[in-house]
Amino acid sequence: MKIKGSTNIVGLIGHPVEHSFSPPMHNAAFDELGMDYAYVAFDVNPKNLQSAIEGAKSLNIRGFNVTIPHKIEVMQFLDEIDEVASLIGAVNTIDFKNLKGYNTDGIGAVKAIEEVSSIKNKNVVVAGAGGASRAISFYLAKYGAESLTILNRNVDKAQGLAGDVSDSGLINDVNAGSISEIGRYLVNADILVDTTPIGMHPNIDDAPIALVGDMHEDLVVFDAVYNPNETVLLKEAIKAGAKPVYGIKMLLYQGAESFRIWTGRDAPVDAMENALKDTLNLE
After folding, report:
1. What pLDDT digit, counting tens, does each position of 29-48 carry?
2. What pLDDT was estimated at residue 19?
3. What's the CA gap between 168 and 192, in Å, rounded?
4. What SS3 class is residue 128?
5. To 10 degrees, the CA torsion angle through 250, 220, 149, 104?
6. Residue 201 class from Cβ within 10 Å (0-12 exposed, 13-18 middle, 19+ buried)?
7. pTM for this predicted structure
8. Strand partners, 244
9. Is the peptide bond before 16 cis (omega within 30 degrees of 0)?
């Protein structure tokens, strides 16, 4: 990469950011296409968030990804919010052309799943009711899921999210329940989406949310955790003959969507995936 006087800067803001996989992924994309861009991570203390956005605008920075803890707070400093990001109530991508916020987490998950199965007219079970579940649930609804069942240990939280998704008018059939009863919900499910941190490094031997006996071979199982690549849940899915979808694909496709928003060009997904695999020491 050659940094020149003309180089366009995009980047990541969060606190902390040093463990992010986004810089190698995006810089590999710019290298692949010979684009005069560089991607940098910026550690922004929450109390400096407004000045960071104003400063980035003054410095002609082209775009930001936004990670914890800024995804909600940053919205008040933007001029426009994408419709689905507004429903989600969180932003993970900013385009400085019009100071507009987007949320590409959900579309990242949807595109990962759609490598294996269409979402349209499918019965989907979502485990977890936090920020990732919220982002993914609205996009599952937008992409035409027949039904959505949100399961959580705290059922009130699941019911709250289910109510919000239902109120969006994107989908008619939204339910909530306890994650302890996941087995009975999976009997008629086409897709299972796990947004919980269970099995994430270093807790790779956690008990999975569902076991081989809970799954069937027509089930698509997506785990948002990408470290390790093959989580305890995906190991159970493979044993059951179900179709696994790896969390790294969500990371990849949310990044590809951000790339498209900033540059107006389709991302070189293969180059980005290779960079991610190198960074994560995957085969």
Report:
1. 999 999 999 999 999 999 99
2. 86
3. 22
4. coil
5. 10
6. exposed
7. 0.91
8. 221
9. yes
